[in-house]
Design brief:
The chain is of the alpha/beta class. The chain contains 15 helices and 8 strands. It is about 55% helix and about 10% strand. The protein has an 8-stranded mixed beta sheet, sandwiched between helices.
Length: about 425
């Protein structure tokens, strides 16, 4: 009798996780659509502030500022504002010499980009409230020449928040940088691109995003989690907005090359994700009840990824226990487990290949990272398991030294 009850529980858990995965798969199919963005010649040109939060980034910030100054957009309509945060190097001086407006901030208690952006928004609205929108970058980025032209188009079409395309400066350094690159290419194509095609919300992912001054004036900028990007997305959807996806607005970002750096960075992401899921779930439910939209439902499903993953793990454990007690044939269970393992490897290899191929990257150069993609994703599992019990809510800086140029990156893509 008890075995029947356990089997019923196992079937229910399987049903929930299967429906969840099928929903995510059905959404991702929209990634196979194609579209082009054409900028009308008579479009209104808005004034932007490029905001750069920088901590000890003297080695790379000059190249970022130069890439913004060389935009195919009126130079007088872009102000570059660098916030040198708790710096003990020459970041502020290098930025000033490169032509940026520089604010120096020293606060050892409120550490992290969320606090830095809150600080600079307050300074801007008090001292130079002249901007239509803000574009936020990390100090190690490089910005393609048409970034602001395409963000301006998105702004003219009514977007209040928009995420650009996050590409990589060093995808071929090793399998760790390659794993991060595949992760972002997959997110770009199968999550953000697909959702934008269906009228849903993209996810702000830390850099290369735009937010209008009108949005900040109305809703403020008040974040408290270690993943301020996801938090801003959640807040905007609760407020009835959506994040537009602008793949033509491209930034290049440096990826970690050591496993320790990679694990530390992703532990912070997962901890912040758990924070957002916990802190905003009730607000989401109230918002959906008050004004239901599919955009809100879709993002709430994104926030419950962790509970669904836990249900899937419990389901597998129940299956293993039932097999041990011969509820299922042991041989059959072993064969099914082996097939599951082989299938999982195949799925990660397929996802890796599809992400590289569909984003127009060099498959030959990325082959090692594609083959190691199951290993990279296994480290995600370790991080998730750790962060369920130990939250890594401390922001730690990542050292950036990759000094390639846009021409070098574009040349590598064409090889």
């Amino acid at each position: 009798m008890i075995y029947n009850q356990i089997i019923h529980i196992w079937l229910i858990l399987n049903y929930i996780t299967t429906v969840f995965m099928l929903y995510q798969l059905s959404i991702s199919l929209a990634a196979f659509r194609s579209k082009k963005a054409v900028i009308p010649p008579d479009i209104k040109q808005h004034r932007f502030a490029a905001l750069i939060a920088a901590r000890n980034e003297e080695n790379v910030i000059g190249a970022l500022i130069k890439s913004i100054q060389e935009q195919n957009y009126p130079r007088e309509l872009i102000d570059i504002i660098v916030i040198a945060d708790n710096c003990d190097d020459d970041t502020a001086e290098v930025a000033r010499n490169a032509g940026a407006i520089v604010y120096e901030r020293f606060n050892k208690t409120e550490v992290g980009k969320g606090y830095v952006l809150k600080y600079v928004f307050r300074k801007i609205f008090a001292e130079r409230d002249v901007y239509d929108a803000f574009c936020v970058f990390d100090a190690d980025n490089l910005v393609e020449k048409d970034f602001f032209a395409h963000m301006n188009l998105s702004l003219s079409e009514g977007a209040q928040l928009a995420q650009g395309y996050r590409d990589m400066k060093n995808p071929s350094d090793n399998w760790i940088a390659g794993g991060h690159s595949i992760f972002y290419w997959m997110e770009n194509r199968f999550f953000d691109y697909a959702r934008d095609e269906l009228g849903l919300s993209a996810i702000i992912n830390g850099t290369g995003f735009m937010v209008t001054s009108d949005y900040i004036r109305r809703y403020g900028y008040d974040v408290h989690t270690v993943t301020e990007d996801v938090e801003l997305t959640v807040q905007s959807v609760i407020n009835g907005k959506r994040v537009a996806w602008v793949p033509q607005a491209k930034v290049y970002d440096e990826q970690p090359v050591t496993l320790s750096q990679s694990m530390a960075q992703r532990s912070r992401w997962v901890s912040g994700f758990i924070q957002n899921s916990h802190d905003y779930f009730r607000d989401f439910c109230r918002s959906i009840r008050r004004e239901p939209t599919w955009i809100k439902v879709d993002l709430m499903l994104y926030l419950v990824t962790l509970p669904v993953m836990i249900l899937g793990i419990i389901s597998m454990l129940i299956y293993s226990v039932l097999a041990l007690f011969n509820i299922f044939a042991v041989l059959s269970s072993i064969i099914n487990t082996l097939w599951l393992l082989v299938g999982t490897l195949g799925v990660f290899w397929l996802i890796g290949f599809a992400s590289v191929f569909m984003e127009g990257k060099n498959v030959k150069v990325m082959l090692k990272s594609i083959l190691m993609n199951p290993v990279f994703n296994a480290t995600w599992g370790v991080i998730w398991c750790k962060c369920i019990f130990v939250h890594d809510n401390k922001w730690t800086p990542i050292v950036h030294n990759c000094s390639v140029t846009l021409d070098e990156i574009e040349g590598a893509d064409q090889k």
